[in-house]
Amino acid sequence: MNWIEINALHKLFSEEEVKLNETLRNSGEIRYLEKSRRAVEMTADRMRATSRFSEIYKKDYLQNYLTYESFLNGHGLLKPQTRFDESDIRILMSLYDKKIAGNLEDLRHQIISFDESLRGVSHMFFKNEKYLLNKGALIDALKYVLDIEEFSNEKDQQYIYKLECHNPRTIVLCENIDFLTKPNKPRREGIELWYAGGKNVSKLDYVDTRGLPIFYSGDWDYDGLCIIYPLVKGKIPSIELLTPNGLPKSVIDSEHKSLWKKDSKSRTDILNSEQKAIVESLIQNNEWIVEESNDLLQMLDCYN
Fold first, then answer.
1. Contact predicate 89/3, CB 8 Å
2. What is the 8-class DSSP label of residue 289?
3. Can you give the pLDDT of all 304 residues of the chain as single tens digits?
4. Are strands 287-288 and 249-250 parallel, antiparallel or unpaired?
5. Which CB contacts under 8 angstroms, 24+ apart, belong to 114-117?
6. Which terminus of the chain, N or C, has fewer Cβ atoms within 10 Å?
């Protein structure tokens, strides 16, 4: 859902009737409430609450609305044209919480120092380098949350983001940025985290691991295992893949875009036997494992 749908459902809860617009007519969530849960009724230009709606709304939607509205309104992000997706709002809230806790300071300084591009920032936080394009309101909200004035227009940069620590004993190269926004445990355990930007592996030609063992952490899906990790392994032959401990998710239910293909098994020949067995299970069940669902310290302990 986006904010227009979220706000309309709250208005329906308060007023029992809402005027339809194109967004509401095409809303999958509202169709679900109408067809499956019999909580709303639709006319040519109106949406009305049935006797079931109030209880369903209070149970499944109200708290989220109050949380989102409080955040957006409290930070001046709630405007008539606001139509952020629910996932966008959650990302903004999560980043803001991490900034307040001091966990984004290193990353923020690096984004500014390296003059990171809009595409790079988009890939960092939204897993798609084109996601922020033509989304001015969301870009402005992200600038506000990160306290950054501008992002560069350049497409690619040749540097690696690093979460450094005192007396590092190992390095973990992450496919996604999430682990770098949670610095306390890795630093305490002497783990230096790197982020190069997913498929942007050309910059790895120049890395210096300083003799430290280096591991790779990523999404266990087609892109992560069949494309990115082999490219990384070609650049850093000593790197080892960490075995995940997160729970698999359905590719279909999570609307994931990196689908397993016919050559998936042949492209994961560089994995060990345990890892190959996990891949075979994921392919058979059409599932994947999100990098940030794993416990990084446990993955390293199991490897050691």
1. yes
2. B
3. 999 999 999 999 999 999 999 999 999 999 999 999 999 999 999 999 999 999 999 999 999 999 999 999 999 999 877 899 999 999 999 999 999 999 999 999 999 998 888 988 998 998 778 899 899 999 999 999 999 998 886 555 678 999 999 999 999 999 999 999 999 999 999 999 999 988 888 889 999 999 999 999 999 999 999 999 999 999 999 999 999 999 999 998 888 888 999 999 899 989 999 999 999 999 999 999 999 999 999 999 987 6
4. antiparallel
5. 114/157, 114/159, 114/161, 115/152, 115/154, 115/157, 116/151, 116/152, 116/157, 117/151, 117/152, 117/153, 117/154, 117/155, 117/156, 117/157
6. C
Closest CA to 176 of 128, 241, 116: 128
Cα-atom radius of gyration of the chain, to the nearest Å?
A: 22
> What are the strands, taking DSSP E only, across the chain?
17-19, 40-42, 46-49, 161-163, 170-174, 191-195, 214-217, 240-241, 249-250, 287-288
Structure tokens at 172: 């973990």
Distances (CA, A) of 231 to 22, 99, 119, 245: 44, 33, 21, 23
- At 23, list the tokens: 């967004």
- Closest C-alpha among 174, 180, 178 to residue 215: 174
